[in-house]
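Example 9 (inverse folding). The structure is encoded as follows.
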């Protein structure tokens, strides 16, 4: 049987891409499909849970508006002087500090769930200096002509050194909102703090 040159050339052209692929596969290092897992003792991890109830003498719509959309007026914590605090009121939004100049900042938390005027669920570090995971729920409801804010938050991580500070910080955050709404007192973050 005689093979002509055209048939041979066609066979080479058809098989050439497969030969190149085989060479590429051989040239790549072989990586085993292994996963290594290491477990250790949690020597420094603690859990902290804080619940608050705060009544504000204002309608729930006003309290929600100021608590969420005007957070810069009342949120007391900041890392840097003269920064702004912003709350993006949608699922996936951030609660964050924008440093002067606008190009840098710090994220306090993220919005996981939000129902306008009623409830917001958040996670984040919220200004705590050590490694931790935390989350919380803020609920707003009408009560006795005003608004009852109920918060429920929990954190797990390196909390031992900041436990009482976190309690005081939480108290100051919510009292700052109350003063902002009832007395018109804006918070002064001009000094900032380094953590």
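The amino acid assigned to each position is listed next.
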């Amino acid at each position: 049987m005689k093979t002509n040159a055209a048939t041979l050339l066609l066979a080479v052209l058809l098989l050439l891409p497969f030969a190149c692929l085989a060479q590429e596969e051989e040239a790549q290092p072989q990586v085993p499909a292994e996963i290594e897992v290491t477990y250790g003792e949690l020597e420094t991890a603690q859990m902290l849970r804080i619940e608050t109830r705060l009544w504000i003498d204002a309608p729930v719509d006003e309290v929600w508006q100021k608590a969420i959309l005007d957070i810069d007026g009342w949120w007391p914590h900041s890392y840097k002087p003269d920064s702004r605090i912003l709350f993006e009121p949608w699922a996936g939004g951030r609660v964050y500090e924008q440093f002067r100049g606008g190009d840098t900042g710090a994220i306090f938390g993220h919005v996981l769930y939000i129902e306008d005027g009623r409830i917001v669920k958040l996670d984040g570090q919220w200004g705590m200096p050590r490694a931790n995971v935390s989350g919380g729920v803020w609920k707003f409801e009408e009560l006795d002509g005003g608004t009852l804010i109920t918060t429920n938050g929990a954190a797990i991580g390196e909390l031992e050194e900041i436990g009482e500070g976190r309690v005081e910080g939480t108290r100051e955050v919510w009292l700052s909102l109350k003063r902002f709404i009832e007395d018109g007192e804006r918070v002064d973050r001009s000094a900032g703090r380094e953590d």
